[in-house]
Amino acid sequence: MYELGVVYRNIKRTDRATADGLASLGSATVHEAMGRVGLLKPYMRPIYAGAQVSGTAVTVLLHPGDNWMMHVVAEQIQPGDIVVAAITAECTDGYFGDLLATSFKARGARALVIDAGVRDVKTLTEMNFPVWSKAISSKGTIKATIGSVNIPVVCAGMLVTPGDVIVADDDGVVCVPAALAAKTLESARAREANEGDKRAKLASGVLGLDMYKMREPLEKAGLKYID
Q1: d(C-alpha 90, C-alpha 43), whole Å
Q2: Could you tell me the CA-to-CA distances from 42 to 62, 65, 116, 157, 192 in Å, in that order?
Q3: What digits encode the pLDDT tens for the residues 167-209?
Q4: Are 162 and 11 in contact (CB under 8 A)?
Q5: 20 to 30 A from 7, CA-CA: which of 15, 61, 148, 225?
Q6: What is the distance between the alpha carbons of residues 57 and 40, in angstroms, rounded to a whole number?
Q7: In this structure, what DSSP letter does residue 48 have?
Q8: What angle do CA 99, 100, 101 make, to 5 degrees?
Q9: What is the dihedral of CA 192, 39, 168, 182, to 10 degrees?
Protein backbone atom coordinates (compact mmCIF):
# COMPACT_ATOMS: atom_id res chain seq x y z
CA MET A 1 0.00 0.00 0.00
CA TYR A 2 1.23 3.47 -0.86
CA GLU A 3 1.55 6.12 1.84
CA LEU A 4 -0.69 8.99 0.77
CA GLY A 5 -0.68 12.67 1.67
CA VAL A 6 2.99 12.99 2.66
CA VAL A 7 6.01 14.92 1.38
CA TYR A 8 9.41 13.75 2.53
CA ARG A 9 11.83 16.64 2.31
CA ASN A 10 15.17 15.27 3.49
CA ILE A 11 15.91 12.32 1.24
CA LYS A 12 19.38 10.79 0.94
CA ARG A 13 20.58 11.16 -2.63
CA THR A 14 23.24 9.06 -4.32
CA ASP A 15 26.64 10.75 -4.44
CA ARG A 16 26.50 13.35 -7.21
CA ALA A 17 29.73 12.30 -8.96
CA THR A 18 28.54 8.70 -9.12
CA ALA A 19 25.10 9.66 -10.36
CA ASP A 20 26.54 11.99 -13.00
CA GLY A 21 29.11 9.43 -14.16
CA LEU A 22 26.49 6.97 -15.30
CA ALA A 23 24.98 9.25 -17.96
CA SER A 24 27.68 8.78 -20.60
CA LEU A 25 27.53 5.00 -20.30
CA GLY A 26 23.90 4.76 -21.35
CA SER A 27 20.97 2.64 -20.28
CA ALA A 28 21.95 -0.57 -22.10
CA THR A 29 25.47 -0.74 -20.64
CA VAL A 30 24.26 0.20 -17.16
CA HIS A 31 21.48 -2.41 -17.36
CA GLU A 32 23.97 -5.11 -18.36
CA ALA A 33 26.55 -4.01 -15.79
CA MET A 34 23.97 -4.26 -13.02
CA GLY A 35 23.17 -7.86 -13.92
CA ARG A 36 20.35 -7.20 -16.42
CA VAL A 37 17.99 -5.71 -13.87
CA GLY A 38 16.50 -2.27 -13.21
CA LEU A 39 14.96 -1.64 -16.63
CA LEU A 40 11.62 0.16 -16.79
CA LYS A 41 9.11 -1.27 -19.25
CA PRO A 42 10.04 -0.57 -22.88
CA TYR A 43 6.89 1.42 -23.57
CA MET A 44 8.63 4.30 -21.79
CA ARG A 45 9.89 6.37 -24.73
CA PRO A 46 11.64 9.73 -25.05
CA ILE A 47 9.56 12.53 -26.52
CA TYR A 48 12.52 13.46 -28.74
CA ALA A 49 15.61 11.57 -29.86
CA GLY A 50 19.13 12.14 -28.64
CA ALA A 51 18.66 12.97 -24.96
CA GLN A 52 20.97 11.03 -22.64
CA VAL A 53 20.85 11.85 -18.94
CA SER A 54 21.37 10.54 -15.46
CA GLY A 55 20.33 12.00 -12.13
CA THR A 56 18.96 11.30 -8.69
CA ALA A 57 15.33 10.31 -8.38
CA VAL A 58 12.74 12.53 -6.77
CA THR A 59 9.49 10.59 -6.80
CA VAL A 60 5.86 11.62 -6.99
CA LEU A 61 2.71 9.53 -6.77
CA LEU A 62 -0.21 10.82 -8.84
CA HIS A 63 -3.82 9.80 -9.33
CA PRO A 64 -5.49 9.19 -12.70
CA GLY A 65 -6.23 12.45 -14.49
CA ASP A 66 -4.89 14.59 -11.62
CA ASN A 67 -1.57 16.45 -11.70
CA TRP A 68 -1.89 18.42 -8.45
CA MET A 69 1.15 16.71 -6.93
CA MET A 70 3.36 17.71 -9.86
CA HIS A 71 3.25 21.22 -8.44
CA VAL A 72 4.09 19.86 -5.00
CA VAL A 73 7.08 17.83 -6.18
CA ALA A 74 8.55 20.90 -7.93
CA GLU A 75 9.43 22.37 -4.54
CA GLN A 76 11.51 19.31 -3.64
CA ILE A 77 13.66 19.32 -6.77
CA GLN A 78 17.37 20.01 -6.34
CA PRO A 79 19.87 20.55 -9.18
CA GLY A 80 20.72 17.21 -10.77
CA ASP A 81 17.43 15.49 -9.92
CA ILE A 82 15.15 13.57 -12.27
CA VAL A 83 11.46 13.52 -11.36
CA VAL A 84 9.95 10.03 -11.47
CA ALA A 85 6.15 10.04 -11.58
CA ALA A 86 4.03 6.97 -10.89
CA ILE A 87 0.24 6.71 -11.18
CA THR A 88 -2.08 4.83 -8.80
CA ALA A 89 -4.00 3.41 -11.78
CA GLU A 90 -3.35 3.30 -15.50
CA CYS A 91 -3.76 6.64 -17.27
CA THR A 92 -2.46 8.30 -20.44
CA ASP A 93 -3.65 11.87 -19.84
CA GLY A 94 -1.24 14.76 -20.45
CA TYR A 95 -0.02 15.50 -16.92
CA PHE A 96 2.93 17.69 -17.90
CA GLY A 97 3.59 20.48 -20.38
CA ASP A 98 5.79 23.47 -21.01
CA LEU A 99 4.70 25.49 -17.96
CA LEU A 100 5.57 22.75 -15.48
CA ALA A 101 8.75 22.08 -17.44
CA THR A 102 9.73 25.73 -17.02
CA SER A 103 9.28 25.36 -13.27
CA PHE A 104 11.15 22.04 -13.11
CA LYS A 105 14.01 23.42 -15.18
CA ALA A 106 14.31 26.50 -12.97
CA ARG A 107 14.73 24.19 -9.97
CA GLY A 108 17.51 22.25 -11.71
CA ALA A 109 15.64 19.13 -12.84
CA ARG A 110 17.33 17.23 -15.65
CA ALA A 111 14.33 15.28 -16.90
CA LEU A 112 10.95 13.75 -16.16
CA VAL A 113 10.12 10.05 -16.26
CA ILE A 114 6.35 9.52 -16.10
CA ASP A 115 4.23 6.39 -16.43
CA ALA A 116 1.48 8.40 -18.13
CA GLY A 117 1.08 11.09 -20.79
CA VAL A 118 2.65 14.46 -21.53
CA ARG A 119 1.85 17.26 -23.98
CA ASP A 120 3.38 20.44 -25.45
CA VAL A 121 6.02 18.19 -27.00
CA LYS A 122 7.13 20.74 -29.60
CA THR A 123 7.85 23.34 -26.91
CA LEU A 124 9.47 20.80 -24.58
CA THR A 125 11.79 19.84 -27.43
CA GLU A 126 12.67 23.48 -28.09
CA MET A 127 13.36 23.85 -24.34
CA ASN A 128 15.67 20.83 -24.42
CA PHE A 129 13.77 19.39 -21.48
CA PRO A 130 13.77 15.60 -21.91
CA VAL A 131 10.80 13.48 -20.92
CA TRP A 132 10.33 9.73 -21.03
CA SER A 133 6.64 8.88 -21.01
CA LYS A 134 4.10 6.18 -21.68
CA ALA A 135 2.05 8.37 -24.01
CA ILE A 136 1.66 11.77 -25.60
CA SER A 137 -1.82 13.23 -25.13
CA SER A 138 -3.50 16.61 -25.48
CA LYS A 139 -5.94 15.64 -22.74
CA GLY A 140 -5.46 17.79 -19.65
CA THR A 141 -5.80 16.96 -15.96
CA ILE A 142 -7.50 18.35 -12.87
CA LYS A 143 -6.16 19.25 -9.43
CA ALA A 144 -8.32 17.59 -6.80
CA THR A 145 -6.63 14.64 -5.08
CA ILE A 146 -3.42 14.52 -3.06
CA GLY A 147 -0.79 11.86 -3.53
CA SER A 148 2.72 11.81 -2.10
CA VAL A 149 6.25 13.01 -2.79
CA ASN A 150 9.49 11.13 -2.14
CA ILE A 151 8.06 7.75 -1.24
CA PRO A 152 9.08 4.48 -2.94
CA VAL A 153 6.97 4.06 -6.09
CA VAL A 154 6.58 1.52 -8.86
CA CYS A 155 7.04 3.30 -12.18
CA ALA A 156 6.57 1.28 -15.39
CA GLY A 157 7.03 -1.94 -13.45
CA MET A 158 10.19 -0.91 -11.58
CA LEU A 159 10.57 0.01 -7.91
CA VAL A 160 12.16 3.45 -7.60
CA THR A 161 13.27 4.74 -4.20
CA PRO A 162 13.98 8.45 -3.69
CA GLY A 163 17.71 9.07 -4.18
CA ASP A 164 18.24 6.18 -6.60
CA VAL A 165 19.96 6.93 -9.90
CA ILE A 166 17.96 7.13 -13.12
CA VAL A 167 19.77 6.60 -16.42
CA ALA A 168 17.78 7.34 -19.58
CA ASP A 169 18.46 7.59 -23.30
CA ASP A 170 16.96 6.51 -26.63
CA ASP A 171 17.18 2.84 -25.60
CA GLY A 172 15.18 3.14 -22.40
CA VAL A 173 15.20 4.00 -18.71
CA VAL A 174 17.09 2.18 -15.95
CA CYS A 175 16.88 2.63 -12.19
CA VAL A 176 20.08 1.97 -10.25
CA PRO A 177 19.47 1.55 -6.50
CA ALA A 178 21.59 3.95 -4.48
CA ALA A 179 23.37 1.09 -2.69
CA LEU A 180 24.52 -0.36 -6.04
CA ALA A 181 25.40 2.87 -7.82
CA ALA A 182 29.17 3.02 -7.17
CA LYS A 183 29.69 -0.66 -8.02
CA THR A 184 27.52 -0.33 -11.13
CA LEU A 185 29.51 2.68 -12.34
CA GLU A 186 32.75 0.71 -11.98
CA SER A 187 31.32 -2.33 -13.77
CA ALA A 188 29.78 -0.23 -16.53
CA ARG A 189 33.06 1.57 -17.21
CA ALA A 190 34.89 -1.78 -17.46
CA ARG A 191 32.21 -3.07 -19.80
CA GLU A 192 32.43 0.04 -21.97
CA ALA A 193 36.22 -0.34 -22.27
CA ASN A 194 35.82 -4.00 -23.24
CA GLU A 195 33.24 -3.10 -25.88
CA GLY A 196 35.61 -0.49 -27.25
CA ASP A 197 38.24 -3.17 -27.87
CA LYS A 198 35.65 -5.39 -29.57
CA ARG A 199 34.41 -2.53 -31.72
CA ALA A 200 37.97 -1.86 -32.94
CA LYS A 201 38.44 -5.51 -33.90
CA LEU A 202 35.12 -5.67 -35.74
CA ALA A 203 35.94 -2.45 -37.56
CA SER A 204 39.24 -4.00 -38.73
CA GLY A 205 37.31 -6.83 -40.36
CA VAL A 206 37.55 -9.52 -37.68
CA LEU A 207 34.34 -11.55 -37.59
CA GLY A 208 32.31 -12.10 -34.44
CA LEU A 209 32.50 -15.81 -35.33
CA ASP A 210 36.24 -15.70 -34.64
CA MET A 211 36.38 -13.02 -31.95
CA TYR A 212 33.85 -14.88 -29.81
CA LYS A 213 35.29 -18.31 -30.76
CA MET A 214 31.94 -19.50 -32.09
CA ARG A 215 33.08 -21.83 -34.84
CA GLU A 216 33.70 -24.95 -32.73
CA PRO A 217 30.45 -24.74 -30.71
CA LEU A 218 28.52 -24.06 -33.93
CA GLU A 219 30.08 -27.18 -35.49
CA LYS A 220 29.18 -29.22 -32.41
CA ALA A 221 25.63 -27.87 -32.63
CA GLY A 222 25.43 -29.30 -36.16
CA LEU A 223 26.02 -26.29 -38.42
CA LYS A 224 27.30 -27.33 -41.86
CA TYR A 225 28.79 -25.19 -44.63
CA ILE A 226 27.84 -26.25 -48.17
CA ASP A 227 29.69 -24.98 -51.24
Answers
A1: 13
A2: 21, 22, 13, 10, 22
A3: 999 999 999 999 999 999 999 999 988 888 899 999 999 999 9
A4: yes
A5: 15
A6: 14
A7: S
A8: 90
A9: -50
